Amino acid sequence: MINILNIADDADVIINGYAFKRKENGVSVLNLNNPNKASFLSYSGEILETSMDDIELSIVQDYFQRGLKYMEVQDAEVL
Fold it and tell me: Residue 40 is inside which H or E element, if any?
C-alpha cells in the first residue's frame, strides 16, 4: 500500500492535492486524494506516462506550469 504521508513529505511542491516531485528525467505527479491517478511529465510539460483522464491531465499541466518556480527547475527547458 502506498504511504501518502511519505509521498507528501517528499514532494517538492503540493498544489491542490497533487504532489509534484522532481526526478532525473522529469516530474512525477500523484493525486494524493486518489493515488491510482499518477503522471510523469517531461520538464517541458509533455506527458510521458499517465493513468489520468484528459481533463485531469489538463488541470495537472496547468498546475505544473504554475508550480515550476517553486520546484526550482532552472536548468530544464521550460515552455
Answer: strand 38-41
C-alpha cell at 8: 507528501
Q: Radius of gyration (Cα) for the chain, nearest Å?
A: 11
CA distance 24 to 17: 23
78 within domain boundaries: no
Domain count along the chain: 1
Residue pLDDT, tens place only, 8-52: 999 999 999 999 999 989 999 999 999 999 999 998 889 999 999
User: Are residues 36 and 56 in contact, defined by beta-carbon separation less than 8 angstroms?
Assistant: no
In a domain, 12, yes or no: yes
- The domain in which residue 19 lies consists of 4-71
Q: Is 20 within a domain? A: yes
pTM: 0.84
